[in-house]
Amino acid sequence: MEAEKMDENEWKYHGEGNKSLVISHVQRCVVLRFLKFAPGRNLTPEEIFHHLKNIVEFGKHIMKLYLGENYVHYGEVVQLPLDFLKRLCLKIQSERPESRCEKEMDILSGYAMCLPNLTRLQTCHLVEHRPIVCIEIKPKCGFIPISNSVSKEIKNRVCRFCMYQHLKVAKGKWKRISRYCPLDLFSGNKQRMHFALSNLLQEAQNNLKIFKNGELIFGCRDYHNSLSDLNELSHHLKTFFFPANGLISGPHCTRTVIKELINVITMTLLSTTENYRASDKRPIPILQGRNYCEASHVSRELLRNGKHSVECSGLPKGCILHKTLQVQMLDLLDIEGLLPLYNRVEQYLEEFPEERSTLQIDGPYDETFYERLKNISVEDDGSVEYAATKIHQYRVAMTAKDCSIMIALSPYLQDECSEQRSVVTASQSRLMYSVSILDLDFKPYDNIPYQYKRDSKIVNHYLKSIQAKEDPLSNFLLENEECTLVLQKV
């Protein structure tokens, strides 16, 4: 990027998370990602550069090796003119959601990450003049803990996502509990996957977004009328799945288009875009726990009909869900089993603070760090090295639990792109597609105690919620703690 060519009017607000803000170029297929901070928190330009460089190195040397180079785009750190950044910040400030404005975009360091725009097709650069739709899914954790360290039995039956929904609604973050369950999506069973995707479309929260030509057209809102939103979405997508005008219309149009969308998403999630080799597979333990979550509405329906097991068809090796689940399962101990190991490391570092770099607590995220991750021994020898390894594996697993999968689709014309492409066939159309993974930042070591407290809060709130449903009188008394029960003689 040449400094003299930086024009803030060529960039537009793209979106943001808790720690970063993204803008995209109007013409070029790139985005810039900036760190965000609470007012008053100042990091030096050197610290920000080091942090961004660590994100790039983590993606390049760790996540790419686990997930595959076809899926991971780690980008590069770039330095930009400060006057351009100030103008850009003023330009996009009015476009930011009010709920996100409590943190400020970093414009003082001059550093940002430059990445490909993953809402665009990554496998063919000749389709920019044709419409492109991109589905962003944040699938979350796809398995139930199997660790012996789990203290609350409910964690062996109900997944974290479904439990966390109750706390989020209670706090007012969302108005309704989502019926989506990650274990249904990761099951590999198409019926369960369709059910999961249908529920994401009904209650997207921040787990589903859909872009058309780079513009957000669906998701990231607490919907007041999901039916009207789906009607609008089907209007946007109709030409992708039914190119012939007038082919479908009337009240069944929305249902037909959404059904096609769900089917295409399922096929791309189960597809393999690279030649899978057994040597590429990292030694991840086989999932031995439940293949379903008791809070899932699929499970409830089957159990209601007298079926006591939920089918799990399994995921094809090499598909994006299989790869993501493998990395998630580096979390062998659950946060409850990890905290004692964190305390062991902390106690050791209090006595030997110079060993922090030797244990690679703050990186660097290089080949040595990756070699540590390959040790999946579950036998604790009491060493600080064992504890540090399990902590690193947990942090990588947490990254995979919080990543986003990007599926870009564009109409396929065989005579226009002659080389081999990834193509998915719908009922009345063919679509080129690319699958990528986003949000692969490393998780901070110092965040582990917070994760433990949050886990306890989620589980305890869920237990209270289901107890209140089972015992309405108990719920009434909890809400009216000052009430007095008076017994009178009859």
Task: Describe this protein's structure.
The protein is of the alpha+beta class and 490 residues long. 38% of the residues lie in helices and 14% in strands. It has 14 helices and 12 strands. The strands form 2 sheets. Strands 1, 2, 3, 4, 5 and 6 form a 6-stranded antiparallel β-sheet that branches. It has a 6-stranded antiparallel β-sheet with strand order 9-8-7-10-12-11. Helix 10 crosses helix 12 and helix 10 (334-351) packs antiparallel against helix 13.
Secondary structure layout:
Layout: E1 11-16, E2 20-25, E3 30-37, H1 45-67, E4 76-79, H2 82-93, E5 104-105, E6 111-116, E7 133-137, H3 160-171, H4 182-185, H5 190-202, E8 208-212, E9 215-219, H6 226-241, H7 253-269, H8 297-304, H9 320-328, H10 334-351, H11 367-373, H12 384-401, E10 404-411, E11 423-425, E12 430-438, H13 448-470, H14 472-479
Antiparallel strand pairs: 1-2, 2-3, 3-5, 3-6, 4-6, 7-8, 7-10, 8-9, 10-12, 11-12
Helix pairs in contact: 3-13, 5-7, 6-7, 9-12, 10-12, 10-13, 13-14
Function: Phosphorylates Ins(1,3,4,5,6)P5 at position 2 to form Ins(1,2,3,4,5,6)P6 (InsP6 or phytate).
InterPro entries: Ins_P5_2-kin, IP5_2-K_N_lobe
Family: Belongs to the IPK1 type 2 family.
> Mean pLDDT, rounded to whole units?
85
Termini separation comes to 87 Å
Model regions low in confidence, pLDDT < 50 over at least 5 residues? 277-288, 474-488
Shape: globular
Q: What is the count of β-strands?
A: 12
Range of strand content: 5-15%
Number of continuous helical runs: 14
GO molecular function, one term: ATP binding
Catalytic activity: 1D-myo-inositol 1,3,4,5,6-pentakisphosphate + ATP = 1D-myo-inositol hexakisphosphate + ADP + H(+)
GO cellular component, one term: nucleus
Keywords: ATP-binding, Cytoplasm, Kinase, Nucleotide-binding, Nucleus, Transferase
